[in-house]
């Protein structure tokens, strides 16, 4: 059995190294159609066993044409990062070690790695000492965790135990959101029993920043509230004025939650942290490690300035579980919605060890510099219209009308030189370019701009 593992893992390591080594040469997008992939990967369930090495090699042969080169330096879609070498290696070990990180008893080293990595992140972001945290699949689950804590806190102050009594008959509470919030906020609230019709929506400006004056009016009177602010709007990268929002929510007794999926990472940069000034005054924060920290998918983090409601909202006990004990070890099931769970702390720990404080800052600042270089280069492409200034790592632009914009984008993606996505801005089709990968360099910027030059020229 040991020999089987040695052979298949050695072969897999070679395949993985070849894949990563091919990124500069291979098309960034997939080269197979949906029907082709179904044909390659489909078929009846095998009747008998197969050699593990054969299974892996046949999987690679069938799947590779359908892979998107997300780790490439020329992948600019959906604010997706790559994978730092130490983080990728630690993620492999996470699979091999196969620790169930829900309980300290099932993986003591996994528990302590999360404990250390969580404290490092808290320190890196300058969040309040004593804040609780949870390693979760992504920002969606981080919102769910934070807003569950907020729901508990607000209703508990009103004399209602939502974990025991549910929401039926509960005292009224308001959920206040921005008109330009991310869709994951609505989904988390829906899962927590708050339908979209119950939300109070505050207007936002054309860059997606919440109207603080309107928020002040909303909070002037009424039942207790939870306010969801944003650090990094998904199209423009713009930041809500978190300090001004905290000035409003604090006196109103509202819980302030910050959606910082990628934008909150500016707190690690001396050059850029002013954009999120006031973030430390919030009550909870949600962000991703699989974006700017370049940890492999999936990896999100929830922080809460108030450990008691956090734990009360998501913890669980059972007679058969081994929880707590000497030295008060950290059991992740006290802080996450998950029960059995992957040891996500290992890759985060490894990424932070590889980069250090200065490395994280340099990574964030370098990506933002590349975004500015993209904007300058695109401004020189005939027919290209930049839609606002570059705030951090998001570049928003279009070409003429909607149809032209789509054609220019399609040609670039089909060329294989880069992959990025379309969006809607101001009711019109636009292109969103997100620089979030540690691999992206000057040559990747040059090649992508050349692809847009060529695609735009085809319109004339």
TrEMBL record:
It holds the Pfam family Pyridoxal_deC. The modification N6-(pyridoxal phosphate)lysine is found at residue 291. GO terms for biological process: carboxylic acid metabolic process. Its cofactor is pyridoxal 5'-phosphate. Keywords: Decarboxylase, Lyase, Pyridoxal phosphate. The keyword Lyase applies. One of its GO terms (molecular function) is pyridoxal phosphate binding. The keyword Lyase applies. Belongs to the group II decarboxylase family. This is Glutamate/tyrosine decarboxylase-like PLP-dependent enzyme. It comes from Actinoplanes xinjiangensis.
